[in-house]
Amino acid sequence: MFAVEVRDHMMIAHSLPRPVFGPAQGMHGATFVVDAAFFTEDLDADGLAVDIGLASTLLKAVLEPLNYQNLDAIEAFRGKVTTTEFLAKHLFDRLADEIAAGALGDGGGRIRRLKVSLEESHVARAWYEGAL
User: Fold this and answer.
1) Maximum alpha-carbon separation in the chain
2) Is the pLDDT reported for residue 53 higher than 90?
3) With contact defined as beta carbons under 8 Å apart, do 113 and 129 qualify?
4) Residues 73, 74, 78, 80: is their CA dihedral positive or negative?
5) Rounded-to-integer distance, Cα 4 and Cα 55, Å
6) Is 2 exposed, middle or buried (0-12, 13-18, 19+ CB in 10 A)?
């Protein structure tokens, strides 16, 4: 399997209103380093798995609606616990939708797997990975 991985980041505010989250139950901020890995079984005629420029642009576009936002105030997240794992799956779904809609050009049709990883500190990260 070949892979191209691109990186960006987002800054958000949210609360995790369950006792298990201790002090994170209250409103707090987080800066996530976000990696998206696009997996293909082969390379195109230009020797590419995925166009890295298009992949970078796509990741930035998917992060933009969340960046500098209070996730508690976003209607789609109402009643959800926006853990790092939850956000990884949310971003995976948005990327998958955009890939299906052609955001990565012809090369997007060759993508077989996608992995979205959110690093919340130098000691903790979570991800969601699945087939497309």
Assistant:
1) 53
2) yes
3) yes
4) negative
5) 8
6) middle
- Helices (H) and strands (E) in the chain — how many of each? 2, 5
Q: What is the pLDDT of residues 91-107, one digit of tens each?
A: 999 999 999 999 999 88
Residue 92: CB partners within 8 Å, gap ≥ 6? 114, 116, 128, 129, 130
Q: Are 70 and 78 in contact (CB under 8 A)?
A: no
What one-letter code names the amino acid at 42?
D
| φ/ψ of residue 105, rounded to 5 | 70, -160
**pTM for the model:** 0.96
Contacts of 108 (CB under 8 A, 6+ apart): 50, 99, 100, 102
Q: Percentage of the chain with pLDDT > 90?
A: 98
